[in-house]
Amino acid sequence: MRKRTGTDLIAGDVHQQLRSKILTLEIKPGARLVEDDISSMLEAGRTPVREALLRLQGEGLVSRDRGWVVESTDPSSFRTIFESRIAIEGYATRLAAERATLADLDGLQLLVDEMDRGEALPRSEINRLNQSFHRTIVALSNNPFFVELHERTQFQYWNLRLPVIFMKDQLGRSAEQHKAILGAMKDRNGALAEQVTREHIETTMGIVADALRDD
């Protein structure tokens, strides 16, 4: 095995910082990444910056097109993104139902209660609460690989810029499904929690598919 060097460690840190900025959309899709600018911003040499960019390229987050560019997501790939969410979040929720503490469940209940306000909330706040609900459940699986994969599917999903406006009845159904997921988790029924989660994401996939057909 090759001995790890200081450069490896610096490249890993640069990779994590850039990855976080891309996944949170702080660095937007289509943005150009200039090695010298990144070196200056992160106070790192060009070699670790280049190594970090190559890692991000391997993850599908950046590509080379007369320089480095943050990848954009083709809307036609929405189905594969949702299929990934169904697989990852479904089983992660099963594990979370078995592993979450009572305090964890209380925290999820607060998110569900807040989302119950529905149309009284700005759409951006509904999105934030929804993301937090799903992200928290995946984290409660205590599986770091699920967390990493979920971050990538969430990046791809929000990167789609889908022409979808959820109607009042759709928001209501989503809220009821969130309650059902949490109810199954509180009952420690992992199989039911997984099933309801899969159905919840499939419902959203259907709404998106309809919106794309009408667009």
Description:
The chain is mainly alpha-helical. The chain folds into two domains: 6-70, Arc Repressor Mutant, subunit A; 75-214, Four Helix Bundle (Hemerythrin (Met), subunit A) (Up-down Bundle). The protein has nine helices and three strands, in the order αβααββαααααα. It has a three-stranded antiparallel beta sheet with strand order 1-3-2. It is globular, with a radius of gyration of 19 Å. The termini are far apart.
What are the SSEs and their pairings?
Blueprint: H1 6-23, E1 32-33, H2 35-42, H3 46-58, E2 62-64, E3 68-70, H4 78-99, H5 102-115, H6 123-140, H7 144-159, H8 168-186, H9 190-214
Antiparallel strand pairs: 1-3, 2-3
Helix pairs in contact: 1-3, 4-6, 4-7, 4-8, 4-9, 5-6, 5-8, 6-7, 8-9
Residue stretches low in confidence (pLDDT < 50, at least 5 long) are: 1-6
Output mean pLDDT.
85
Distance between the ends? 53 Å
Q: What is the count of structural domains?
A: 2
Count the strands? Answer: 3
Instruction: Write the H/E string, N to C.
Output: HEHHEEHHHHHH
Which strand order do you get reading across the main beta sheet? 1-3-2
Spell out the CATH superfamily of the largest domain. GntR ligand-binding domain-like
Q: What is the CATH domain class of the largest domain?
A: Mainly Alpha
* Helix content estimate: over 70%
Count of discrete alpha- or pi-helical segments spanning 4 or more residues: 9
